[in-house]
Amino acid sequence: MTTPLAARIAREYGTPAAVIDMDRVERNIARVQAACDKVGLANRPHIKTHKSPMLARLQIEAGAKGITCQKLGEAEVMAGAGIDDILISYNLLGEEKMARLGALQLKANMTVAADNPVVIAGLPQAAAASGRPLSVVVECDTGRKRAGVETPAEAVELARQIAASKGLTFGGFMLYPTESGWSDAQKFYDEALAGVRAHGLTASMVSTGGTPNLKNLGKLNGATEHRPGTYIYNDRMQVAAGVATWDDCALNIYSTVVSRAGPDRGILDAGSKTLTSDTGGGLEGHGLILEHPEARIARFAEEHGFLDLTRSNTRPNIGDVVRIVPNHVCVVVNMMDEVVMVRGEEIVGTLPISARGKLR
Amino acid sequence: MTTPLAARIAREYGTPAAVIDMDRVERNIARVQAACDKVGLANRPHIKTHKSPMLARLQIEAGAKGITCQKLGEAEVMAGAGIDDILISYNLLGEEKMARLGALQLKANMTVAADNPVVIAGLPQAAAASGRPLSVVVECDTGRKRAGVETPAEAVELARQIAASKGLTFGGFMLYPTESGWSDAQKFYDEALAGVRAHGLTASMVSTGGTPNLKNLGKLNGATEHRPGTYIYNDRMQVAAGVATWDDCALNIYSTVVSRAGPDRGILDAGSKTLTSDTGGGLEGHGLILEHPEARIARFAEEHGFLDLTRSNTRPNIGDVVRIVPNHVCVVVNMMDEVVMVRGEEIVGTLPISARGKLR
């Protein structure tokens, strides 16, 4: 079964194609902005998901205070498009990056994160290059064992180092609590805040993160802003996390069935170079096929998706164009030079993914 | 520990960076060409690994008969750079693709693969658009359960359909035997060949595939050519398969340690958007760190690689630039706009990955 829109996409652009529904995109932007407004938190969306200045501007026009980037290269694209309030939620390190960060400070109001003294020791080089003070927030690990200091005492120590560094100002704290760990995060934050206050510092930015954490929005007493990313498109992970419905999933991969291979098998023209091998935290199969939800995208070659149809009552024909909700949309978008925009059944045009591949 | 070259790469380009050693690239090209020459097989390297016309030309100058592409978009880039003998080892389907394939036939000598009657029924549209005959080989599944017909009888049936189609010529067979399945492949091929001969057809192209299958080169009696891809760079998968040594691995990801996070942990600035989540067929960890081979790249965020150092006697410092051999180099290259070329300790320059992201 091929929808009329899928047939038009295949004819005009070919498959596999990443297609975003702008009606859904705008609805997702509005819903999360309203949720932030409701609890009095600023919204600072993470652009790692869409990597598009046009979509970042839509988020800001809807009320977002600024944006979050993970890499300098992303921030350069966004600042170049006129976005002027940017948090880079990442340890930036090395001469090459300090020179670029200094140049960025002349274009946008920059904040960066740090979780160790070596990174902080390097940042004054950027501030010196720009001649402007650089705001630095301390990243705190509140349970995920990813980046971030592991104790409030370390956070206080880094805050003091920042405040004592020429050209740097202590900006506050950045947290990404686990979905069930917000009371631990509160304890961590309260202790860190008391610690910095004891040294005469204030935390003007207290930033929480994550689309799955939208269900915890406002739970951290003292938070000033939230950094959701995936919500603009959503994906199987967000549906599994309970923060999105299938109707909120704004990006589909349109893919052609190019072979049936065997009676219980099928082959898509989308493989790991389109959908990536990301399991979305252990989801069954490599994406949901809307036309055949019981079909399992069981394995990948680089340009092939291998379907296991044993449990599927409906079976695609060769030539069918199907729509796939990816496991993890952020890594999928990162492989696309452009996405096709639609509104309902109408094709609007294409959108370049300007910050795609900006990995440094 | 940071090598002097790694320090220069970080200073001049920043990290993470994909770096290829051209001495190793040329050695890999020469070695595999010599192996093909020795057993009297033509070499038709698959460019999915490097996606660079410059490197494809090096392969042809070394003696390769032509190249293999997986997607039309890759073939368009290669034909645009003057490469004139191209096999697209893929079921191509749909009006949009047939128009492009017809246009490509005017630029290069094209062969395409097919494993089902629907795909074959569409191909005459390309031949008609070009006004030239199109050579079609039948893809045979000899044990992998990927693409390809499952029985010699089906292969013969498709060969007859091709031969009876206006504008198409039956070109032969394409196989990708499992590493231990070459006697099965021989049986399949012999039966299919006898079948087509009974109908007055000949198989002028009999193509086997795979870098891991270099150890089986020449084992299929009747084969005319081989399609190795990964051998130009190699990776952990090829070392595990026994067809490459660490010294044959020509591409490294240079990555900075941006945090130690905890005593037994470390964080790289390369995550799933640099190295991908590809496990390389179930390898332990997400890549080998040459400076710390006992460190495990245990988990990824999109831009972070999380190190488990519990079993590592040596531990990196924040700011160290390390070199990583990826699990699966083909999917890594597909995320890079460019690679940095070196020869030994000298930086040569950058090479654009012109066919990157050509997924359709």
Question: What would you say this structure looks like, in words?
Answer:
Two copies of one chain form a homodimer. Chain A folds into two domains: 4-20 and 237-344, D-serine dehydratase-like domain (Lyase, Ornithine Decarboxylase, Chain A, domain 1, Beta Barrel); 46-228, Alanine racemase (TIM Barrel, Alpha-Beta Barrel), CATH 3.20.20.10. In chain A, 32% of the residues lie in helices and 24% in strands. Chain A has helices spanning 4-13, 22-39, 53-61, 72-80, 95-105, 117-122, 124-130, 152-163, 182-198, 236-241, 272-275, 329-333; strands at 17-21, 42-43, 67-69, 85-88, 109-114, 134-140, 168-175, 205-209, 225-227, 251-259, 265-268, 288-289, 296-300, 305-308, 321-325, 338-343, 346-352. In chain A, the strands form two sheets. In chain A, strands 1, 10, 11, 12, 13, 14, 15, 16 and 17 form a nine-stranded mixed β-sheet that branches. An eight-stranded parallel β-sheet of chain A has the order 2-9-8-7-6-5-4-3. Chain A is elongated. The two termini of chain A are 42 Å apart. The mean pLDDT of chain A is 97. Chains A and B meet through helix 1, helix 5, strand 10 and helix 11 of A and helix 1, helix 5, strand 10 and helix 11 of B.
